[in-house]
C-alpha cells in the first residue's frame, strides 16, 4: 500500500458518508479502498466539522490502528511520515485560522501509531 501512488481523496462530505457507513456497520473496511480512505482521513484530520473530525476520523483511526490492527506496518510508517512532514506543523504561526485542529489531531494520530509500534 502506498499513500502517494494515487492522489484520489474524498471531499469532506463523501468521506463523512463513507465513514458513517463503516461505523454503523453498513460497510466493512474490506469493502472499500483502504489507502484512499486513509489518505482522505489524513487530508481532513483537521476538519472544522466536529462529527467528521472527532466521531469519525479519530475514532476510526483508533479502530484501524489499535482495536483491529488493520493497517500494515509500511502504511503506518507512511502515515507517520506524512504526519511529521506535512501535518504536525501545518499552519503554525497563522493567525485567525483553524489549523490548530490539524496539528492537535495529528498528534493524537501519532500517539496511536506509536502505541501500536510499542505493542
Secondary structure layout plus pairing:
Elements: H1 12-24, H2 34-43, H3 50-67, H4 73-87, H5 99-118
Helix pairs in contact: 1-3, 2-4, 3-5, 4-5
Q: SS-based structural class?
A: mainly alpha
Helix content: 55-70%
Oligomer: single chain
Cα end-to-end separation: 22 Å
Mean pLDDT: 93
**What value does the Rg take, in angstroms?**
14 Å
Low-confidence stretches: none
Structure annotation, total helices: 5
SS elements, strand count: 0
Order of helices and strands: HHHHH
Fraction in beta strands = under 5%
Shape: globular
Main beta sheet strand tally, sense and closure? none
Question: Can you describe what's shown?
Answer:
The chain is an all-alpha fold. The chain is built from 5 helices and no strands. α4 (73-87) packs antiparallel against α5. The longest helix has 20 residues, at 99-118. The two termini are 22 Å apart. The mean pLDDT is 93.
Short description:
With 119 residues, the protein is mostly helical. The chain contains five helices and no strands. The longest helix has 20 residues.
Please tag this protein with its features.
single chain, mainly alpha, 5 helices, globular
Amino acid at each position: 500500500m502506498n499513500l502517494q501512488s494515487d492522489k484520489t481523496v474524498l471531499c469532506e462530505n463523501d468521506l463523512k458518508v463513507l465513514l458513517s457507513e463503516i461505523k454503523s456497520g453498513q460497510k466493512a473496511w474490506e469493502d472499500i479502498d483502504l489507502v484512499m480512505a486513509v489518505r482522505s482521513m489524513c487530508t481532513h484530520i483537521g476538519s472544522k466539522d466536529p462529527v467528521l473530525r472527532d466521531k469519525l476520523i479519530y475514532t476510526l483511526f483508533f479502530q484501524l490502528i489499535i482495536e483491529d490492527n488493520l493497517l500494515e506496518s509500511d502504511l503506518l510508517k507512511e502515515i507517520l511520515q506524512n504526519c511529521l512532514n506535512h501535518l504536525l506543523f501545518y499552519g503554525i504561526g497563522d493567525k485567525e485560522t483553524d489549523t490548530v485542529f490539524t496539528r492537535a489531531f495529528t498528534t493524537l494520530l501519532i500517539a496511536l501509531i506509536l502505541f501500536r509500534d510499542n505493542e
